From TrEMBL:
The UniProt record lists the keyword Cytoplasm: yes
Amino acids binding substrate: 12, 65, 75-76, 183, 203-204, 214-215
Entry function: Catalyzes the stereoinversion of LL-2,6-diaminopimelate (L,L-DAP) to meso-diaminopimelate (meso-DAP), a precursor of L-lysine and an essential component of the bacterial peptidoglycan.
SUPFAM superfamilies, per the entry: Diaminopimelate epimerase-like
E.C. numbers: 5.1.1.7
Site (Could be important to modulate the pK values of the two catalytic cysteine residues): 149, 203
Leading EC class: isomerase
Binding partners and assembly: Homodimer.
GO CC term (a single one): cytosol
Compartments it resides in: Cytoplasm
Protein's name according to its UniProt entry: Diaminopimelate epimerase
Pathway in which this enzyme or protein is active: Amino-acid biosynthesis; L-lysine biosynthesis via DAP pathway; DL-2,6-diaminopimelate from LL-2,6-diaminopimelate: step 1/1
Major subcellular site: cytoplasm
Amino acid sequence: MIDCLKMNGNGNDFLVVDNLSLAMDASALARAARAVCRRRESVGADGLLALEPSERAAFRMRLFNRDGSEGEMCGNGARCAARFAFDRGIVGREMTFETRGGDVHAVVRGNRVALDLAPVSTGSAVLKAHASVEGCDFTYAFLVVGVPHAVIFERERRRSIAEYAVLGRALRSRQDLFPVGANVNFALLSSEDSGTLDVVTYERGVEDVTLSCGTGSAASAIAGRLLGVVGDEVRVVNPGGVNDVSLTWIETDVVQPRLEGGALMIAEVRLLPEAFEADCRRPA
């Protein structure tokens, strides 16, 4: 049995476990993610977050996606990890923790958390690349905000979430463009507020459109700033909620993104052995 907490950041949901004792190794965490993140058949989540010891920070956050792959970073997940650590008395309200995508500084304010993400180098960003998938032509920006992101700016919302999932999957799978894959963000500038972006994200590892992506919100804001369509303060509206992004330029081509949004505690969960089993309807 494993005890964990079901949490979500703007609808991007996770199972969060305290692995400070290192009771589970990476392979066990990956197997657990594949098993328990199945929707309907198990508890269901976009991923599993594990808190582990760190030699240089308060703790290390590890993210295992629904498919069992280990991700470098997740903004919404990092907010959940920070609130979990504070609630469990692991750290105080303000903390710095380690991720594979860089160290993150966080401040917990009730059910909202502000994150200073690792600085992003924009010198290697690609701003106006072209790709064709599923009979559609796109112009996209590419940059790394903890994880690789493609950002496509649209003039209008003409597609359903299911259609975005098909296009996102096709783009994410273009290994000639993205050798390690990429999250794909479809961004739309608000017609009413020039500081607001509407963003729909297809997430690598989850392999579907999610209700929100924190690093995708930051990537969309940075790409929009580089293209001159938004400023340094951006309100990013995802299907699951709002992420507020602030950009501070450390150097001409280095930006520090701050990401603020919700981190909700939904349920304490005790995972029983059958949560890890295959669908019981299948014959043995």
